[in-house]
């Protein structure tokens, strides 16, 4: 009888222990915030979020941030106080759901903006997550520096006669897709936008692109001698250090 009681007691203890190790779904809200701008969400295709076990590299969850870029006044024009929030229910984010049985050290990556390969960067951080202890609200916010730069003209591999004017045009937006305009929240006059014109056997030239009446659009005109040219357009903000680049190739004949 005592033996049966001991076996029963041992089984009870084992069941209790195994029960305590059952996986608990734990939520971690992850957001990507463009440097000097707003959150990266649906309007620009989102940021790809990958949550890994930092020790093994195993992916625990992944997906894309979705939602709005957030409240401009709250994010950029309101002094931040301790424990204050930068987000609301509509602000872009990705809710990672982790099934974990014990505290785990994780690494979170934001690849953003994901749909713009020439400008996509990776921002990451690491932290401990405890089973059942959700990280919500603003959650984990990863800063994403830079500009999205798209060369609009000339087109890739376009052939242009040396006697013709070469039109240089580029679209510049913040990493969240927010527009750049003269005198706006993101002031086009604050940024340095230039084209580097390079061809084999020729000295490289730089030409400044100026803002136009159309939001986020910068342009200039030039003439070029015959050759195969690589055109590099960059944007630089001397205040924040944000940078962005796009390249294309053309033929002058």
Q: What features would you describe in this structure?
A:
It is a single chain. The protein has 253 residues and is mainly beta. The protein has 2 domains: 23-144, Immunoglobulin-like, CATH 2.60.40; 147-252, Immunoglobulin-like. The chain is built from 2 helices and 16 strands. The strands form 4 sheets. It has a 5-stranded mixed β-sheet, with no helix packed on it. It has a 4-stranded antiparallel β-sheet with strand order 3-2-5-6, with no helix packed on it. A 4-stranded antiparallel β-sheet has the order 8-10-14-13, with no helix packed on it. Residues 11-19 have low confidence and may be disordered.
Main β-sheet: number of strands, strand sense, barrel status?
A: 5 strands, mixed
* CATH topology label of the largest domain: Immunoglobulin-like
Q: What is the architecture of the largest domain at the second tier of CATH?
A: Sandwich
Residues in helices, as a percent range: under 10%
Count of domain modules: 2
Radius of gyration: 26 Å
Main sheet: strand order:
9-16-15-11-12
For this structure, what is the CATH class of the largest domain?
Answer: Mainly Beta
Shape: elongated
Describe the SSE topology.
Layout: H1 2-20, E1 24-34, E2 48-53, E3 59-64, H2 72-77, E4 94-100, E5 104-112, E6 121-129, E7 135-144, E8 147-153, E9 159-160, E10 166-174, E11 192-199, E12 205-208, E13 210-211, E14 217-222, E15 227-236, E16 243-252
Parallel strand pairs: 1-7, 9-16
Antiparallel strand pairs: 1-4, 2-3, 2-5, 5-6, 8-10, 10-14, 11-12, 11-15, 13-14, 15-16
Signal peptide: 1-22
Keywords: Signal
């Amino acid at each position: 009888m005592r033996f049966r009681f001991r076996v029963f007691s041992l089984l009870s203890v084992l069941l209790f222990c195994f029960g305590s190790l059952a996986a608990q779904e734990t939520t971690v809200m992850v957001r990507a915030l463009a440097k000097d701008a707003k959150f990266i969400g649906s309007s620009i295709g989102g940021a790809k979020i990958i949550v890994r076990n930092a020790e093994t590299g195993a992916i625990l969850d992944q997906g894309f941030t979705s939602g709005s870029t957030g409240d401009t006044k709250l994010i950029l024009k309101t002094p931040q106080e301790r424990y204050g929030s930068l987000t609301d229910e509509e602000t872009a984010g990705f809710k990672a759901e982790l099934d974990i049985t014990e505290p785990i050290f994780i690494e979170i990556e934001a690849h953003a903006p994901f749909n713009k390969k020439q400008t996509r960067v990776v921002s990451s951080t690491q932290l401990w997550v405890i089973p059942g202890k959700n990280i919500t609200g603003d959650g984990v916010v990863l800063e994403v520096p830079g500009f999205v730069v798209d060369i609009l003209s000339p087109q890739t591999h376009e052939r242009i006669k040396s006697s013709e004017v070469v039109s240089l045009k580029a679209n510049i937006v913040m990493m969240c897709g927010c527009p750049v305009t003269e005198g706006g929240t993101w002031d086009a006059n604050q940024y340095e936008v230039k084209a580097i014109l390079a061809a084999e056997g020729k000295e490289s030239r730089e030409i400044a692109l100026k803002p136009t009446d159309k939001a986020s659009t910068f342009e200039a005109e030039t003439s070029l001698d015959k050759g195969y040219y690589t055109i590099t357009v960059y944007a630089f903000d001397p205040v924040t250090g944000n940078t962005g680049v796009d390249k294309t190739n053309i033929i002058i004949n």
